[in-house]
């Protein structure tokens, strides 16, 4: 369990740092497919990925490997799961994804397993090492990296790109439209509500105090959901218990999987917070917030329900 928590924290921090610091990230306008005539065949096509690479796809990919949980979820949501022949060990949603062969970790998958599966296309996110991409391509494996800005628009952009390369543009458009409707519904429900202070528990106690700072997407989502991010005085993920006690937020939100309420309720500093004493330590499926995928709008809805349950009665 401790190893899993450390891994998740490391991945969250790594993802943030890459988005914040890398000059190779795309804007919302990046990774657009080369323009074609309305009635022209979709393939071959050339698409600019999130590393600014021109990726040429000669024909519709029939065998695809996804090495990112959010990409795997997109493939299923776009109705293209029959193409999926490989995944990362962290790609665990939906349940059927666990039946797909694992090729290893997010950053260092097994090159041998990937090559052995003979994919038409490997789709990764930008935490994926460029040298691994280069090694795969030197072995004849086509790779595309897709990762939008840390915002809903960035997620929509990634969905569009995955939909384009997998010949699922109509499904991508429908998926994005549905997500936008959910986001608008949340916005409408909470627009006139007070904004209680909210602290998102990434880690606590011996594992270190980590939360979603003001420049993280989760921090932004707290605001969209009608709250005030208690950690809006820092950037990144690291926080301090002293600051938390000083802020004494009205609501604490933690993962229902590994940041147990019981543990927080018995941890020095946390157990004396008003939110804990007042029964405002709330659990959420953190995968709905951590993964920049098709369930993100559902995560926003769950966040809004936790902050403003009265808006959903």
What features would you describe in this structure?
The structure is a single chain. With 313 residues, the protein is α/β, with parallel strands linked by helices. It folds into 2 domains: 2-167, Rossmann fold; 185-312, Rossmann fold (3-Layer(aba) Sandwich). 39% of the residues lie in helices and 12% in strands. It contains 12 helices and 10 strands. The protein has helices at 2-21, 69-77, 111-117, 130-138, 152-165, 169-190, 217-224, 241-247, 261-265, 274-277, 287-290, 296-307, and strands at residues 45-48, 54-57, 64-67, 84-87, 121-124, 143-145, 197-201, 228-229, 251-255, 281-284. It has a 4-stranded parallel sheet, with helices on both faces. It has a 4-stranded parallel sheet with strand order 8-7-9-10. The chain has a two-stranded antiparallel sheet with strand order 1-2. Strand 1 and strand 2 form a beta hairpin. The longest helix is centred in the middle third of the chain and has 22 residues, at 169-190. The protein is globular and about 60 Å long. The two termini are 36 Å apart. Mean pLDDT is 88; it is low at 1-39.
């Amino acid at each position: 369990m401790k190893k899993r928590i450390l891994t998740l924290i490391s991945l969250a921090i790594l993802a943030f740092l890459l988005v914040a610091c890398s000059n190779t990230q795309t804007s919302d306008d990046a990774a657009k497919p080369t323009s074609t005539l309305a009635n022209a065949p979709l393939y071959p096509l050339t698409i600019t990925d999130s590393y600014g690479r021109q990726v040429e796809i000669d024909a519709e990919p029939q065998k695809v490997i996804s090495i990112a949980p959010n990409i795997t979820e997109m493939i299923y949501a776009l109705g293209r799961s029959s193409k999926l022949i490989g995944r990362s060990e962290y790609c665990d949603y939906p349940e059927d994804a666990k039946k797909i062969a694992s090729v290893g970790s997010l950053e260092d998958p097994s090159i041998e397993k990937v090559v052995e599966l003979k994919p038409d296309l490997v789709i990764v996110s930008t935490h994926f090492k460029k040298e691994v991409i280069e090694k795969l391509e030197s072995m004849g494996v086509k790779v595309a990296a897709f990762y939008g800005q840390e915002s809903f628009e960035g997620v929509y952009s990634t969905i569009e790109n995955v939909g384009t390369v997998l010949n699922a543009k109509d499904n991508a458009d429908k998926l994005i439209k549905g997500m936008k409707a959910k986001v608008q519904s949340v916005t409408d429900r909470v627009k006139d509500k007070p904004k209680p202070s909210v602290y998102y528990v990434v880690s606590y106690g011996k594992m270190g105090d980590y939360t979603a700072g003001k420049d993280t997407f989760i921090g932004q989502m707290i605001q969209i959901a009608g709250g005030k991010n208690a950690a809006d005085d820092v950037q990144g993920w690291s926080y301090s218990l002293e600051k938390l006690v000083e802020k004494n937020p009205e609501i604490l939100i933690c993962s229902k999987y590994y940041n147990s309420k019981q543990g927080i309720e018995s941890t020095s500093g946390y157990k004396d917070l008003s939110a804990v004493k007042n029964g405002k330590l709330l659990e959420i499926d953190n995968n709905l917030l951590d993964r920049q995928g098709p369930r993100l709008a559902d995560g926003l809805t769950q966040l809004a329900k936790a902050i403003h349950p009265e808006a959903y009665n």
